Amino acid sequence: MPQPQITQSPASGAGYFFRGMSLAIQPGTRRFVIFPLFINILLFGSAFGFVLSQLGDWINGWIAALPSWLDWLSYLLWPLLAIATLVIFSYIFSTIANWIAAPFNGLLAEHLEAKLTGEPAPDTGLKDILKDLPRIMNREWMKLKYYLPKALGLLILLWIPAIGQTVGPVLWFLFSAWMMTIQYADYPFDNHKVPFPTMRDALKVKRGKSLSFGSLVMVFTMTPILNLFVMPIAVCGATAMWVDHYRDQHKLN
């Protein structure tokens, strides 16, 4: 029987992201990382390059649309709008990539959990993945329904002169960080059929840990080159966090 890995639990959620880096390259894990990594590289390599090439023109156009009495804000608004735009598009790209890679991310979380706990690895094949596909896609849809109304409210806020362009990017980042934690922590939770509201409430109990993990995922997702590798690392980090903090309470659900 495999022996569980004995490692000291990170003190913060951000620490679990860095732990995910080491877990993703370990023997026995790498083969489950390949497909999510390929999807992420394919999507971010093309889409993110386009956004970066257009970013300056977009922001200059938005600033030009502001009233003339707010011209003095342009130096402050440029970096804030750049961050807000990168956050929005990073989350959009990440969501699309996760929809495509969801079955394989779940498989990665499943096998990594077995490795971390010393339990026998599940014998999951293509037939099992296809059988679970409707449930997995329904779960992704639930996350999207949770995201859309809140994102719409924040998008409206961004168009409010002065207030929206200063407070809006900060709120966008925090909300996106929260959604990143929900996105990646959901794979191990869903493997154990934990309902989405139960998973969300469990993450809220440790909100600081959740936000620090999601914030680091968000920073890496916004960073060119690094964002190509973030998906499998985040899955591994979130799975380690599940094993250390949530599994004992929720694994029987």
From TrEMBL:
Primary subcellular site in the record, as a coarse category: membrane
Highest taxon listed in the record's lineage: Bacteria
Protein topology in the membrane: Multi-pass membrane protein
Listed GO CC annotations: plasma membrane
InterPro entries the UniProt entry points to: CysZ-like, CysZ/EI24, Sulfate_CysZ
Entry's Gene Ontology BP terms: cysteine biosynthetic process; sulfate assimilation
Keyword Mitochondrion annotated: no
Alphabetical list of NCBIfam families matching this protein: PRK04949.1 (NF003433)
Protein name: Sulfate transporter CysZ
Organism of provenance: Photobacterium profundum 3TCK
